[in-house]
Amino acid sequence: MIGLGLIGGSLLRAAAGKRTVWGATLSEADAGAARADGFDCGTDLDAALRRAAERDALIVLAVPLTALDETLHHVAEQAPECLLTDVTSVKGPVLRAVRRWAPDTRFVGGHPMAGKAESGWSAGTAGLFDGAAWVVGVEPGTDLGDWAEVAALALEAGAHVVPAGAAAHDEAVARVSHLPHLLAAVLSAVAAEGGPLAAALAAGSYADGTRVAGSRPALVRAMTEGNREALLPVLDDALGRLGAARGSLASTGGLAVTINAGHEGKQTFAQAREAQRTGVRIDLTAPDAVEALAALGERGGRITALTDELRTATGEVS
Amino acid sequence: MIGLGLIGGSLLRAAAGKRTVWGATLSEADAGAARADGFDCGTDLDAALRRAAERDALIVLAVPLTALDETLHHVAEQAPECLLTDVTSVKGPVLRAVRRWAPDTRFVGGHPMAGKAESGWSAGTAGLFDGAAWVVGVEPGTDLGDWAEVAALALEAGAHVVPAGAAAHDEAVARVSHLPHLLAAVLSAVAAEGGPLAAALAAGSYADGTRVAGSRPALVRAMTEGNREALLPVLDDALGRLGAARGSLASTGGLAVTINAGHEGKQTFAQAREAQRTGVRIDLTAPDAVEALAALGERGGRITALTDELRTATGEVS
């Protein structure tokens, strides 16, 4: 485990006992706290990576996106052919960085959809991923033996696995995670212009709509700026819809199109989550298995178990 | 009480026992349910209004904004000189409608900042207004004897009173209530475009940001469309900020200005709510009392009691 913050620290705890784990971080505070909790952790990245290379271990990069290139240089030097995954919130930029800086690693990207406001080793818990979605990347040419090893770690941690290509992942999180953060920031700033009277009258819709504007700005910047390419067209979609609402309110005075579309969207997602699910079974050794996994993810499906020595994935889809 | 839905029904329950109350509504279902609960209610608006005129009662209009003009015609015919208040979510349009259709009533506008998703008599509770802000309108020339009688009803119901002019109220709620509903609708619609994969990956920021998009579209339309004049410049402010974020992301790749402004706005409101408060006392018979009340509201202050036979208002401000 390279990086022992909230995500890396939680995953190290969740995997300990099920497999041999060790970690390294440049943060002396996190390394010290992890050691004090009984984990085999230090601040020497290269030593941890050499040990991974010797044992052909799965390396998890749990560092911020801004530290990724530098960390990949260490990986390329110390463990150039290891199986490698990550836990960052964008997948396309990470895939490109790995192909550039550590091209011989067997890389399968990952993104656990879990988090909380606090950060650092001390904020982590072994249960952080219970019931969460964990995207495990499928690209044309992905080795599904490698894929299954990464998916197995996510399942061990208590998550279910959503297979998705980097582009599909990045577009989806732009819509359901990064745009919400930007709209919350805009709403919070516009509300604040209303001064103390607006503050006195702010109630539920303000509180809900601005909750994530309380997140640490550095974290929000890292994830939104890091997903620039996928976020721009999604921002344009939001601007177009908000501009259309403005135009309609100014001309006819009506907001039905905007408000009805929002209400329908909410119902669509609620139905998707509540829909009856049926079991699926994918033979990971079949020639079209990569396409089958990606299609499962696009349909909202999930993998919940790996059997047959990681050669078969089973799950559900509605 | 004219109208026995969520707000009217709750206020009738809250005021019963403290004063003589009766109500009327065009909804036979609500009138029947109120009678079954032991309240003096019916479907004959004119009879209820004549009784108000005979006893010089305070009339509360708790009808939707779309039914206001029609209801005011009844008031002007049956109880043209009564003290009148309302509970609708915009104050400027109501003030103009009253001046046009029932100009001889002694009107003081009101807006309790309380609600829930359900509607109708059966959704109401006597405790709905406990701890809520209740705007009671102050305009140049407002008779503060009338104002105090309306404020006393809000205090009786468990709310605290925020004095504000119609324009200041409408701008504030555009920022902290109506814009949140429109941004939630836009977010919900943009997210839904992401299909089942986006639904599978939607977590906390999506759920918080779209919660009010689940509200009944007719209610959301009534309040946002009803506040058109104040909402348009607030929408422009939001569009400008979101467009600036888009431009910055496309050019420099940075979102610091947007995200930092949102974080600071959140802190500003939190500080306003947590600030140390000091007592205030306003002599409602003083010549500048209307201005003093409006200024108190603009500073985020509130009235919490009326003493001295409604001639003195006391409260707090930070």
From TrEMBL, chains A, B:
<dbReference type="InterPro" id="IPR008927">
    <property type="entry name" value="6-PGluconate_DH-like_C_sf"/>
</dbReference>
<dbReference type="InterPro" id="IPR036291">
    <property type="entry name" value="NAD(P)-bd_dom_sf"/>
</dbReference>
<keyword id="KW-0560">Oxidoreductase</keyword>
<dbReference type="GO" id="GO:0006571">
    <property type="term" value="P:tyrosine biosynthetic process"/>
</dbReference>
<dbReference type="Pfam" id="PF02153">
    <property type="entry name" value="PDH_N"/>
</dbReference>
<dbReference type="InterPro" id="IPR046826">
    <property type="entry name" value="PDH_N"/>
</dbReference>
<dbReference type="InterPro" id="IPR046825">
    <property type="entry name" value="PDH_C"/>
</dbReference>
<dbReference type="GO" id="GO:0070403">
    <property type="term" value="F:NAD+ binding"/>
</dbReference>
<dbReference type="GO" id="GO:0004665">
    <property type="term" value="F:prephenate dehydrogenase (NADP+) activity"/>
</dbReference>
<comment type="similarity">
    <text>Belongs to the prephenate/arogenate dehydrogenase family.</text>
</comment>
<dbReference type="InterPro" id="IPR003099">
    <property type="entry name" value="Prephen_DH"/>
</dbReference>
<dbReference type="InterPro" id="IPR050812">
    <property type="entry name" value="Preph/Arog_dehydrog"/>
</dbReference>
<protein>
    <submittedName>
        <fullName>Prephenate dehydrogenase</fullName>
        <ecNumber>1.3.1.12</ecNumber>
    </submittedName>
</protein>
<dbReference type="Pfam" id="PF20463">
    <property type="entry name" value="PDH_C"/>
</dbReference>
<dbReference type="GO" id="GO:0008977">
    <property type="term" value="F:prephenate dehydrogenase (NAD+) activity"/>
</dbReference>
<feature type="domain" description="Prephenate/arogenate dehydrogenase">
    <location>
        <begin position="1"/>
        <end position="280"/>
    </location>
</feature>
